[in-house]
Amino acid sequence: MHRADEPSQDVERVRRWEQSGAIWRLVAVSDDETVIAFCTCDGGEEVERWRSTDPRLVDYLAGRTSNEIG
After folding, report:
1. Chain mean position to CA 34
2. Going by C-beta distance under 8 Å and a sequence separation of 6 or more, which residues neighbour residue 11?
3. Could you list the pLDDT tens digit for every one of the 70 residues in the chain?
4. Nearest 5°: phi and psi at 60?
5. How many whole angstroms separate alpha carbon 29 and alpha carbon 63?
6. Which end of the chain is less packed: N or C, by CB atoms within 10 Å?
7. In this structure, are residues 12 and 20 in contact, taking their beta carbons and an 8 Å threshold?
8. Which residues neighbour 1 within 8 Å (Cβ) at sequence distance 6 or greater?
């Protein structure tokens, strides 16, 4: 169980990916797991598919399916 004041390593991982200019895409989300594809910034080629069970990640994504603009 995560404490509310404890930083989420999973959220920080997605933030670092965004801050580097790369793309992430939501692949799947369920009550138990979130699956994200980390992609390159120059064409969106998938580099890694990553799974998280941290519910704070779902809150951070706030209904977004990607960080792509346009």
Report:
1. 8
2. 54, 56, 57, 60
3. 556 667 799 999 999 999 999 999 999 999 899 999 999 988 889 999 999 999 999 999 989 999 988 6
4. -65, -40
5. 10
6. C
7. no
8. none
Structure tokens at 24: 């992430």
Whether 56 contacts 11, CB under 8 Å? yes
One DSSP character per residue, 33-44 reads -EEEEEE-TTT-
- The CB-side HSE value for 47 (13 A sphere, CA atoms) comes to 11
Rounded CA-CA distance 51/23 in Å is 16
> Which residues contact residue 12 at a Cβ distance below 8 angstroms, ignoring those fewer than 6 apart?
none
